[in-house]
Amino acid sequence: AQSVTQLGSHVSVSEGALVLLRCNYSSSVPPYLFWYVQYPNQGLQLLLKYTTGATLVKGINGFEAEFKKSETSFHLTKPSAHMSDAAEYFCAVSDYRGSTLGRLYFGRGTQLTVWP
Amino acid sequence: GAVVSQHPSRVICKSGTSVKIECRSLDFQATTMFWYRQFPKQSLMLMATSNEGSKATYEQGVEKDKFLINHASLTLSTLTVTSAHPEDSSFYICSARDQRTGGIDEQFFGPGTRLTVL
């Protein structure tokens, strides 16, 4: 079975500071991992995803995440926070069969606040 | 890129009435769509998986007679909340799976529908 744990429901950083959002997963198969961002009253937008290959994945808006199998982690980082990064972030792991993406298992989310 | 729309974006209804929410894939065909429910400050809870031309697969604990899902075409799935009650008030989000490209496919999410039942 797949599951996701996001450590810290709220993270606050100053503008320009490093952003680190933590995600650990549990999966019975090699995982496909995702980070999504959600702005208030909107759906989810894909930031980045890891499927196979390079473990450091770069996404949109300057975000990146590194898949660490030994630590079962997929933490999201951004070197310098911007006010527009304030949002809810969800980590997810997929339930897939071969190349067919099945359901996504989401973490509880981390609310990122960026202070000026 | 792949775009998924939902209609309406917000709906307010009286207790006991039924509400239909539409989910459309605008520029691709989606053989599979997913319906999620999200409570305030919480994660998305998968309600059901909708496959075009067949019955939806509901997650455990989701009442199929209350949340009717129809996936009549490759670009449209509907969720009908029947006999809505205040506890059904929530944010409903759909996603559609785009399998056009080779390799791993991807889910694209709609903007969500805010349902308020008075």
Describe this structure in words.
The complex is a heterodimer of chains A (116) and B (118). Chain A is mostly beta strands and 116 residues long. Helix content of chain A is 0%, strand content 56%. In chain A, strands 2, 5, 6, 10, 11 and 12 form a 6-stranded mixed β-sheet that branches. Chain A has a 4-stranded antiparallel β-sheet with strand order 3-9-8-7, with no helix packed on it. In chain A, strands 1-4 form a two-stranded antiparallel ribbon. The radius of gyration of chain A is 14 Å and the shape is globular. In chain B, a hairpin with a 5-residue loop joins strand 4 (32-38) and strand 5. Chain B is built from no helices and 11 strands. Classes of the chains: A mainly beta (116), B mainly beta (118). Chains A and B meet through strand 6 and strand 11 of A and strand 5, strand 9 and strand 10 of B.
Question: Secondary structure elements and their pairing?
Answer:
The complex is a heterodimer of chains A (116) and B (118).
Chain A: E1 3-5, E2 10-14, E3 19-21, E4 24-26, E5 33-38, E6 44-50, E7 56-58, E8 64-68, E9 73-78, E10 87-97, E11 100-106, E12 110-115
Parallel strand pairs in A: 2-12
Antiparallel strand pairs in A: 1-4, 3-9, 5-6, 5-10, 7-8, 8-9, 10-11, 10-12
Chain B: E1 4-7, E2 10-13, E3 19-25, E4 32-38, E5 44-51, E6 57-58, E7 67-73, E8 76-81, E9 90-98, E10 106-109, E11 113-117
Key attributes of the depicted protein:
heterodimer; A: 116 residues; mainly beta; six-stranded mixed β-sheet; four-stranded antiparallel β-sheet; 0% helix; globular; B: 118 residues; seven-stranded mixed β-sheet; 11 strands; 53% strand
